[in-house]
Specification:
It is a single chain. The chain has 8 helices and 16 strands. The protein is an alpha/beta fold.
Length: 360
């Protein structure tokens, strides 16, 4: 059985839902199943069955948890085959770009008992709106938290000796990133390593360890690592290595982590609330490369941000509660045997393609 890893394709933020779901439809994608169907229609059931079967078949599986509820699934990716299945309903809407040739809709809504669902209309509408209101509350809290954090980070960013840090990274590049023989440049895929959820802040550093035995930790209280990781990413790709770049969930244009699985090498940034928790291969203290020191105002702003994040997590728990009750209304009216049978059919289709999928 192959090892499985967990990444996120979505993230909650003050600017709304941040999506990387388009990353599943890349050059070289062989097959992307886009699951359609409302709450309780069996999307997670389908994805778990598919993932378990492909693990058993020896494929490396990327499980893609839901950003609101990390115990639920939004997708499964099979990197070795260039195949994936993902929830294509809001907030991560997906539609086929190259129907049948690359991507296709799998309709799980057909397993609803339509007559029974319509009889529960009033309850379904009320719970749906309750969940939307809670999600909007979480968004407002996260926006305030991020604004406070940016104020707190300003002194550290202003006092950062970027030139010194880049020289340090150039030394790491020279030492660690040999040029791969043959072929062209590598490719970059983007995944979130975690973010704020109904369970609080979740980071899947276990996936880093599963893919990369050697981990550089960048101690980064002031969020300074972005340009350094981008320099590492560009150098790795130019030298022929495929990488997984993990952007900040609430600031996706800024990198926080970089994985180079073919070299067994990772670079992770850490700060309070985002701790690696293990002894790294090397530690680089970016905090020592800035003239800023935390003062009373910064401590106050960080405490304010922390309180707002706790409120956001509570709002996401309320959204999950509404969603769970919504699913409980639907569940008696869903043919789950039909969902599992369809998952088995699609698993068989994927297994028939093992070894024959497009190179990517």
């Amino acid at each position: 059985m192959a090892d499985a890893v967990h990444f996120f394709l979505g993230a909650n933020s003050g600017d709304g839902f941040q999506s990387l779901f388009h990353e599943l439809e890349r050059a070289g994608t062989y097959d992307l199943m886009i699951l359609k169907g409302g709450p309780g229609s069996g999307k997670s059931t389908f994805l778990r069955a598919l993932g378990a079967a492909m693990e058993e078949a020896g494929e490396r599986v990327e499980y893609l948890p839901c950003s609101g509820d990390p115990d639920s699934l939004d997708g499964v990716a099979l990197p070795g085959m260039g195949c994936a299945a993902a929830d294509g309903t809001p907030p991560h809407i997906l539609e086929p770009r190259y129907p049948a040739a690359v991507d296709r809709i799998v309709d799980l809504g057909r397993f609803y008992d339509l007559t029974a669902a319509k009889a529960a209309r009033d309850e379904i509408v009320a719970l749906t709106e309750e969940g939307r209101a809670a999600a909007l509350r979480a968004r407002r809290c996260l926006k305030g938290a991020r604004q406070a954090e940016l104020e707190a980070l300003e002194p550290g960013r202003a006092g950062f000796d970027l030139a010194r840090a880049l020289r340090r990274m150039d030394g790491v590049i020279a030492r660690e990133l040999r040029r791969r023989s043959g072929g062209g440049p590598g490719r970059t895929q983007r995944r979130f390593l975690g973010g704020i959820t109904c369970a609080g802040t979740v980071w899947r550093f276990d996936s880093v360890d599963a893919l990369c035995p050697r981990v550089y930790e960048l101690a980064d209280r002031w969020e300074l690592a972005g340009p350094l990781l981008e320099r590492l990413r560009a150098a790795a790709v130019e030298r022929g290595w495929d990488v997984t770049a993990c952007p900040a969930p609430e600031e996706p244009e800024r990198l926080e982590h970089l994985l180079i699985p073919e070299l067994g090498l990772a670079f992770v940034s850490t700060r309070p609330g985002m701790e690696y928790g293990k002894k790294p291969f090397r530690r680089i203290r970016l905090d020592a490369m800035t003239s800023a020191r935390e003062r009373g105002r910064e401590r106050f702003l960080r405490r304010m941000a922390g309180a707002l994040r706790e409120e956001a997590a509570a709002a996401l728990r309320d959204a999950k509660s509404a969603h769970d009750r919504l699913e409980a209304v639907y569940n008696p009216y869903v043919d789950f045997d039909g969902v599992r049978a369809l998952a088995a059919i699609e698993t068989g289709r994927l297994l028939s393609w093992q070894g024959r999928t497009l190179s990517h």
